[in-house]
Specification:
Layout lengths: L4 H4 L4 E6 L7 H13 L4 E5 L14 H10 L5 E4 L19 H15 L10 E2 L6 H11 L3 E5 L2 H14 L8 H5 L12 H4 L25 E3 L4 H13 L5 E4 L15 E4 L6 E5 L4 E4 L5 H9 L3 E2 L10 H5 L8 H4 L6 E7 L5 E5 L4 H10 L5 E8 L1 E2 L3 E10 L2 H14 L4 E7 L7 E9 L4 H8 L7 E10 L1 H5 L17 E7 L4 H13 L4 E6 L21 E7 L2 H9 L19 H6 L2 H14 L24
Parallel strand pairs: 1-2, 1-5, 2-3, 4-5, 6-8, 7-8
Antiparallel strand pairs: 9-10, 10-14, 11-15, 12-13, 12-14, 16-18, 16-19, 17-18, 17-21, 20-22, 21-22
Helix pairs in contact: 2-6, 3-4, 14-17
Bound molecules: flavin-adenine dinucleotide.
Flavin-adenine dinucleotide binds next to β7, α11 and β14.
Length: 633
Amino acid sequence: MIYDSDEWGHVQLGILLDTQWASGAHESATALAQRAEAGRLDLVVVGPGDAEGIRTDTALDPWTTAVWVAAHTGRIALGVAGDPSAPDPSDHAARTAPYPEVVAKARQTLESLAGVRLVADAGWVVAPEGAERAQILALADHHDLPVVVPVRTAHDVERLIPFAASHGGNPSGRSVAARSRRRPGIDYDGLPESLRRTAIEPGDDSFSAVRSTYLRSGAPGLVLRPQTPDEVADAVVFAHRHRHLPLGVRSGGHGISGRSTNDGGLVIDVGALDGIEVVDPRRRRVRVGPGATWKEVAAALNSHGWALGSGDYGGVGVGGLATAGGIGLLSRRHGLTIDHLRSADLVLADGRQVRVSDQEHPDLFWAVRGAGANVGIATSFEFEVDEVDDVGWAKLVLVTDDIEQALLTYGRLASSAPRDTTVFLVTGRPRDGQSVVQLYALVDSDDADVIVERLTPFVALGDLVRQEVVLTRYAGVMAEAEDVGPDGHHGYGEPVSRSALLPELTPAFARDAAQLLHSGTVAYFQLRAMGGAIADVPPDRTAFAHRRSAFQVTAMGRDHGALDPAFDALAVHFHGLYLSFDTDLRPQRLDDAFPPPVLARLRETKALYDPDNLFRDNFNIAPTVDLTVSHAG
Ligand SMILES: Cc1cc2nc3c(=O)[nH]c(=O)nc-3n(C[C@H](O)[C@H](O)[C@H](O)COP(=O)(O)OP(=O)(O)OC[C@H]3O[C@@H](n4cnc5c(N)ncnc54)[C@H](O)[C@@H]3O)c2cc1C
């Protein structure tokens, strides 16, 4: 019978080296494994060939043999059969089994030496010695596992090689080792052709570079890395088929509320869409891909004498920030990042590609500016950017034993400063009654006297212990961020974070915030001055509606159990939050992020464009609310 290559396409074929037989013949065991590897078979399993795994005195130890085979091969996956679970000491048959600790150590050693090639737990099915193609195919079909055939001689291996050659490798081109690390519920082999080459699975060498993000470690089951908007659409359609699984959407990987990684789910990483091009120099219109970082954007615009206000850290990605708001160091002068958005290209939950603007899908254009993560994946943004000359960039460090007074003074000065001046304050737990206060200030002026005049009042916050004030470009400020290396993000710290917006910084807030800091529950506390141009935009213009806020507060801690009660105690001072800095999943946070009419409008938009709630990782706006009716009286 002749099988065409399609029938064989899914078969993973290997050899079983019987350690009973191989006693005293480890060189030939090595030679057989090497021949299998050269013949492009997928797997070598080492272990006793009989079902019970009973050992004789002359049998080789499978783990030691596997180490030997691993050292003499380079690619082929390795399995170890007869890995005994804890033996029962009263069981005679198990008496000769090694101690579990010994096996565990051997296994750990082989894992670290052979890396992803070791597939000890993955499972395989053993074909009868001399099995023919039909039997192998039937076993593969029935069990959906790699098939291993016991071999004793080079001839036995040679006989199998044409089988492997005829199937031309498995359809994904992935080894047994890589496939063994696949997660349940994902149709890996059904991945569209367009995404196969760039997708990364847990067993792939490059997985460690894509599994985590800047602050979060993760272990997704599949990371899709589309290279074009069409491929993003393919990825979304694939994700829609898997909507029972978590879905992370990643651009720059600096998400705080949006995790953009997960455990066992899918990630669509649009980092490759990182183009930056001027589309209309006269109107300062620039198209930017979501995968660019703000550092790259600032550098590209700088050569034209332009800038686009983003955040305070150039490593952050365009996609996450430009769909949420963008409260940054130019905001008081030039508004939020989303206020510069003129259009965006989106892939919707059903895979449709649309351009949104004031004229095209205005409902989506409204939603994308503040709640973009809920409605689609942005594949490009068109911004109108500003002319920005040299700026004053200051980092001041002050020490105070009266943090309450320092907060109050900061509040008064930062909110009454001219629009050209934006000052952020960072502090943490006071130590020995002393608080270290760091001020990050941008003065949008190239006049040194103006810069000094703007900053001098802030010195009243405490004893100035360090100062660094430079005239630089906005690109210079953004350039201070570290680049992400080829080994990707590492998930630093997993902090939990809370956000709130303040209409004003009152003495009562300064008192309560000082108490919070003294309580020690907050490791990182930041106040961002808002106001200025942010408030020029009518609140109903974008889904980011809290236009009248004077400050954004961020508090980070180790766990919500400690942070939430302490932060909630300050709720009387708050009137909303900025979703990019909040990780609290309690439903009330959605009401804080979006005032009731905004939330109602977002739910309508969501029901229209993402009724199955595919995009739910980041401040999920469910399309409908579950109402409960109780009996009156
Ligand atoms: C060090 C640091 C400094 C920061 N400073 C500021 C600041 O000054 N001002 C400010 O406003 N924010 C700031 N942030 C918050 C930041 O804006 C958000 O965390 C933002 O989501 C990060 O974007 P990203 O693309 O890097 O993140 P990612 O982790 O890639 O994405 C985060 C989330 O954004 C959504 N998302 C990502 N890409 C897309 C897309 N293409 N389409 C639709 N949704 C998408 C997804 O829900 C995702 O989970 C800062 C964050 C960090 C870590």
